[in-house]
Amino acid sequence: MIADSKVFSSRRVNSFAFLSPREFAVIGDEMSHAQHQKLNDLLKESGYQSQDDHISKAPKLVKRRICALKSLQLKSIDIEAAFYKRVHDLEREFEKQFDALFLERKKIVNGEREPSDEEAKQPLIHGLAEEDQKALYDSSGSDEGEVGIPEFWLHCLKSNEATCDLIQEHDEPILKHLTDITAHCTTEPVGFTLEFHFSSNPYFKNTVLKKQYVLNTLPDPEDPFGYEGPECTKIMGDTIQWEDGKDVTKKVVKKKQKKGANAGKFLTKTVKADSFFNFFDNLEKEEENKDNAEGDGEDEEEAYELRAADYEIATTIRDSLIPRAVLFYTGEAAIEDDMFPMGEDDGDDASDSEDGEEEEEE
Amino acid sequence: MIADSKVFSSRRVNSFAFLSPREFAVIGDEMSHAQHQKLNDLLKESGYQSQDDHISKAPKLVKRRICALKSLQLKSIDIEAAFYKRVHDLEREFEKQFDALFLERKKIVNGEREPSDEEAKQPLIHGLAEEDQKALYDSSGSDEGEVGIPEFWLHCLKSNEATCDLIQEHDEPILKHLTDITAHCTTEPVGFTLEFHFSSNPYFKNTVLKKQYVLNTLPDPEDPFGYEGPECTKIMGDTIQWEDGKDVTKKVVKKKQKKGANAGKFLTKTVKADSFFNFFDNLEKEEENKDNAEGDGEDEEEAYELRAADYEIATTIRDSLIPRAVLFYTGEAAIEDDMFPMGEDDGDDASDSEDGEEEEEE
């Protein structure tokens, strides 16, 4: 009996991160070609021409039957694609019911209405002993006319394992203006959008920052047997219209030239800074640039991993953060984080050091 | 931007293992209580009574609004449960279409009919260069009246990453008699069954070995906020009616007594042996025995992991092995295994060594 801890924990991580049954792989086209190459190599390595292989040594009549099973497999994959289409329809149908509740949540969070006594009957923290529940109320701050639930979404994002590491100190004052996060299925093209709604603020002009995910729901004609359900084929970000000097996604660094004519002099250079708002970067644009530059395999792999990580965050926001926001706000949903730590991101995206240059933040 | 490889690979493992969007967590009741305790501890540790916590220091009017969001959350979770119910209905609806194709596959695999020329048009291996394809045919064995596709399911099971490690050498002659594997949704109780169909064989009397999985689709009234979709609550195995001396799940070992009155003498003892057929063990029965014996926390955790691993295997068989059997048979689906190795099971379930005893296989 297998009792592999990796299987087990990936199951748990998964069951946490993907609450709704939207199972979308994020395998780009480039991967399916790479897989093909790999398969071909494997087939040769594992000796498809040798006599001890069950495929090559199979009599021709048996081979003919295997070919027939491949035909049946194609039909089966077409039915799967039809199934996923129906799941998408089901999600759209239920979206209306969820949205009605999320709208009420938005009103309460932003002080557009006060809850009824009936609504406010639920205990603050589920399953907490009565004395602990009371103690929570004993330490209540004085009501100084707070509107709604201040900093609600900032607390949610900071307590969700997929988003907490994205948030830098300089992002927090901006995220206090976040009034709602919504997700919607789209049909043309098939996919979904995430929308981050902001109140009027001194940081940027946008009232909504949008991220769009396009899915291919059909099998790839070049690789029909590789079908594993809808694949994310395109991730579109948004352009943040930053107010002057407020763009936290960029920072100016001084670089001391070590070589060449300018050796010893300091030059200033604007580089990317860590920020939650890098989430709105347009990954597709980067893809195109990379294609023009004829990126090598390593670049491709990096771009692929970046897209996969982005998609992971997006589906967690859609399937976990949005439908369970208050549980992240109170911290009740955050214990998963502790039970299965996801590891820290040690990489420094903003690092842009080159040979012969020293970097120093201004 | 998070680019955590664990997130990424768990996503891929998941997208491979769970092709259909059946997202079922396998959290037993005992876990939800443990989680509660943990939450309570965490709440205290993280200082819910202290002034710097956003929940405890929130003014009472803000707390009242949070309580109202908890009411909305409960309604939202009820809609989720209704959604999962509809997904289950959708799976039942599509099952008929898949079953019609799987029945044709069964006929061809077991030689009940020959495919038409139209059916046999698909190439043996997708995407293989023409000369390699031809080479596969050059090495064909002579047709000695083979019926269907010999050892089809044995090859499938050996090339699937969830099942390959379960198969021991002594299982192989038995698994050559496997004629089909089928999966079916059940409604009363809600869940699914796996059925392994065998031709008449000298090893056991059963023609079908069945495994049943019961799911709870509704939120737990004690822990409604912990709802993450249907949970597997019961796993039922089957009783294999082994022919005399054919039970590969047991082995007789000699034990040399080191202490006591029988010191120096050999005693024989029947112990559990590694075997694919342990998959049909009744995990529930073990659970009950354990309850009677008032098992400690470690036993509980072990039982939980055993059930989680079993469920992982079952869903892989249902969502991957059955719908893509021919791709495992040809090895085309097996490359995932290579890309994300799942690790070996180093544990030796059959080991039963005790103090003062030496073990030796007969």
From TrEMBL, chains A, B:
Pfam families: NAP. GO terms for molecular function: histone binding. Residues 337-362 are annotated as: Disordered. One of its GO terms (biological process) is double-strand break repair via homologous recombination. One of its GO terms (cellular component) is cytoplasm. It is found in: Cytoplasm; Nucleus. Keywords: Cytoplasm, Nucleus. Its main location: cytoplasm. Belongs to the nucleosome assembly protein (NAP) family. This is Nucleosome assembly protein 1-like 1.
